[in-house]
Fold this protein.
Amino acid sequence: MVGNVNLEPDELPDDEEPVSGAASEEDVVEDDGPSDDELVLKAQQGDIQAFDLLVERYHSRIYSLTYNMTSNREDAEDLTQEIFVKAFEALPRFKGKSSFYTWLYRIGVNKTINYRKKRNRKRALSLDSFDQDIKLDDDYHDLTAKGSPLRSISLSELQIKLNEALQGLSEKHRTVVVMHDMQGIPHDEIAKVVGASVGTVRSRLFYARRQMQNELSEFMK
Amino acid sequence: MMNEKVSNETTAEEEADVLLQKLLHLKQYEVPEVARMTRNKQNIMRQVRQAQMEKRKPLLDLLELNIPWFFAEPKYGIAALFVAFVGLQYVGMNAKNSATSTGIYTSTANVASFEQDVPVNIVTNRYPSLPSNYPLFGEPQGDQSVIPAAFEYK
């Protein structure tokens, strides 16, 4: 079930609840403890501790969304804060038609897009540093193997190029790339969040990838 | 020949896709500082608590906040409620009376107005009319004094 297909994500009301079908695996509790539904209900009744648990559960994912959308960690922190506070304020209007996760993501995407529009200019990159575990990653080994174009550049240069290519995308294209290729969210969930059809999401993803390949063409040989 | 070309293009596209996926996968190793994230969560919860405090309080809470003496000493509170009740009853009764006696909302039967002019029989002559030649005094007495004449009302 798709929300309002004709509206772009930035035109959708921040906290409008996307209608959801069966709950996806994401909706279900991942760690031990009360389910999202239970926590949401308690938070709606004024239980701050319950909302604290929800923040703990989704903070890193929302931060990751805002960070990859902005490539600026200060902006990402501000946005993450705004998103959770907005979610708390809008919680009484959350009726459970969609999962809390999808609803929170919708607020996140809309807030981030509006935030960027308000600023109306590209911010300088302010990047989180790479975890040292990257050197143990198989993909990293492949990319920096002998003969690869990436072998000649440093990790920080690669990071900057990658983030610049990402920021070169339009907001709606970057949204689908971040959600699908970086966060592994399925097409139908993205469709609910951005209020578009699954076909539109696939199409945006296709064009976004092509554009990124062009931007990163020096590494694509 | 044509098919082969298309097939080669597809393979090149797929390879480019895979390469891009690998590059994007590396972004997952960009990790924020733990301390910054902890501080961020704390800031969120601080703002949430603030928002909770600013939410509209229930009527009872508002009353307690504005008239704490009312709740601090219940006997005064109950007394004040009683006085308020009596006062309201009084005001209500007055309002009811005024509504039934005057005003635009009262029925015509209850409308107060000047009474209609009723012909009144004014007694203009309080005394019996006497004949014009009726003697008021009697004949002078021997010492020339006169006394009012007695008369009979017919």
